[in-house]
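Continued from yesterday's entry.
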Amino acid sequence: MAATKALVLITGANQGLGFAAATHLANTGRYHLLMAARSREKAEAAIQELQSKSSTVDTAAFTPLVLDVTDDDSIRAAAQEVTDRFGSLDILINNAGISRPADPTLGLRESYRAVFELNVFGVAVMTATFLPLLRASTYPDRRIVNVSSGLGQIGIALSPSSPYNVNAFALPVYRSSKTAVNMITAVDAVTLAKEGILAVAVDPGYCRTNFNGNRGLKDPVLGAQAIVRAATEGNPKEMVGSFVDDDNSLAEFGWQ
């Protein structure tokens, strides 16, 4: 079944920034959204909630997708489902992530492994697995959007003037996972630009979500606007190597 609208896959689409980004995209009426979550029940519940928020949303513009980014078999099965139903993918938004392990009793090595498993390895395997579908797309503005964080930038971590430096927020496990995501994005940005596929990192800012126990400074609806901009706006040729953030505050610290 070929999608008549641009096809967008969002991981972790059932809550937080993923759900907020899906809401923005759905309200434009220009996209068919693959709402990826760890269970079909969660994906379908998110679709129902999104549809209940707006009577103008196209009810046929959603497909639930079971996808656990820490499980390679789940990723391959999801890619096969997209292949069978649509044959290609236009935009991939790697949004799913965690700030710390769910189990607070884990040792240091296990804590790093748990966060990197989702935040880093999940992004890398998702991109590699879905890249053939992006390559099969004839959409003129194919993109891979990796949701990162300014906390992963070395310049911000070391800057005495940054309110998000290491003295304010140590978070070595989370910070280092997002630094790794930034490097994955930088390499993909250069290598895939030759194929007309933009890979770009985005920092939505410190938003109130389950991710941080709802302690963020702003509503995820606002933070998700940066994700949407990274996925749909701007000249892709000019965005290679850029970092899309919520308020353009990262420029002074460099793309590190």
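--- second protein ---
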Amino acid sequence: MRVTVKTSGKRLRRGVALSVAGLVAAPALVLGSGTAAQAASCTTSAGPHQKQVEKFLKRPVDGKQSTADCKAIQKFQKAHGITPTIGYAGPLTWRTMNTMLAQKAAGKNPNKAKKCPTDKGRIACVDLTRQLSWIQDGKKLTYGPVPVRTGRNGAETRTGSKKIYWRNIKHWSTIYKVWMPHSQFFDGGQAFHSVTKSMYNPPGSGGCVNMRPADAKAYWKLLKNGDDVYVYGRKPGT
């Protein structure tokens, strides 16, 4: 469908594709001040994880989608870059919430299962399953645990014992053409470094362990070349 808008005597032509697929209703087209914008659609359908999502968001748990439910889910999806942002309680939305619950459950004892070595002195641990990282010295927790964003499917963060071998406080990625502040490389091109997006933004990194700026800065101060890193588990969805 073509939409023509007259602005100051000039004709602006914008091709706007409106489609209906599955549960997604066609969004409304809003014209104003010479610009066109699409209002976010909101599904009326309950998702396969409706009750779990309602409980997480502290909504009435009835398994039925309401307008308020949809708006609450949409808000969560927009905050973490989950698309489409239609308020549907689907697998990715629930997987993200479930990861958050697992992180919360870790509390201040993330190595309760003793999967990260305690006989190496200072070590940075990365649990891909819970998307958590922390620094410990022997059995003593010295920082964290904090949420991280690891490699997406097909570019997974590699598991096993590593060591930090190179650090660059303001690294420029020639592959992704982005800055990687407080980079600490531990396996090939994989490193701890900060990003400004949500730690839950799908599908994940290119293999690095993304961190919030404050956490990456703390890691920079606490770690040094030669320090151990241990990565284990499997990221949900990979």
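Residues 44-106 form one domain. Residues 91-106 form the longest helix (16 residues). Will compare against the first tomorrow.
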